[in-house]
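User: Structure with 3,4-dihydroxyphenylalanine, tokens only please.
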Amino acid sequence: MSQDLFKNAQELLEKVQAFATESKDELERFRIDILGSKGKVRQLFGGMKAIEADKRKEFGQLANAVKQAAETKLSEIRELIEDKADETIKVPDMFIPVNQQGMGSRHPLAVVMNQMIDIFTRIGFVIEEGPEIETDWYNFTALNTPENHPARDMQDTFYINRMTDPAMLLRTHTSAAQSRVMKDRKPPIRIIVPGRVYRNETISARAHCQFHQVEGLYIDEGVSFADLKQTLLYFAREMFGEHTNIQLRPSFFPFTEPSAEMDVSCFVCDAKGCAICKHTGWVEILGCGMVDPKVLENCGIDSEKYTGFAFGIGIERTTMLRYKVDDIRLMFENDARFLRQFSSTL
Ligand code: DAH
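Assistant:
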């Protein structure tokens, strides 16, 4: 009889030690079954009376071992289940508001430059680049501005080294890239060159020592001033709106003949007169002209066969007019409060 009880207790101990579950409910059933008020441990102790007196102590120790094993098992499995529950909480909660990251916005100069690129590439102009560190020859000499030519004073140049041959400088206009392309390629040539240029100017609200231009050049047989005018009218209307008018005023550039400056009807006041157009109704935005035959010859293009037009648009100027910015220095200060105001998908 007592042997059976010992055997049962021993079996129960092994069963308890082997018990495993991941379920809270099953664990609770285990607790009630083993440690509950009517559970197996209670029954074991209840059975003590039936044990011979000399074996009671041993049986008591065995019953205690079962109780202890069950309690240990219970707390071990509980801990395990709780750890698992913690892990599920660590799964990202999709409904927690995200840390707002600013989308950023394009620099206004980039917005306007990209618009210009878009407008000209639509009618077949191809984007070209030239170096910002340029030789004197491409920047001036090829463009009909030899040394000691008074026109060099128009563009206060940052020379890098005047003593080298050729002298090295920071390009004063994107026209320098014109001469490179003309020298390297055969017509037809239809390019635009967006880029940064440098001039040794005192920095003020209206002038800076660095700024941007978009240069245009079209060379082919039979290109005329009428083509230039029509191309620029198209550009002005795409850029500033379909009701924009243009006017070309005679001007001088060493590399074009004839040369002109182009005004657009003031888009701020609808040409009625305002501070931006100085009450004239017109705003100057670019220089242009027919490429001087001498320039074509300097770059190895037959000026008997080919003619061409060129233009150079100031990007800062256009941007400032467009967004009514009255100080060019803002363009280069990278002040987030200024930059945040501009956005565009272009
Ligand atoms: N390079 C001139 C400047 O920096 C702008 C310009 C005028 C470019 C006439 C041209 C042009 O291509 O034909 O002021």
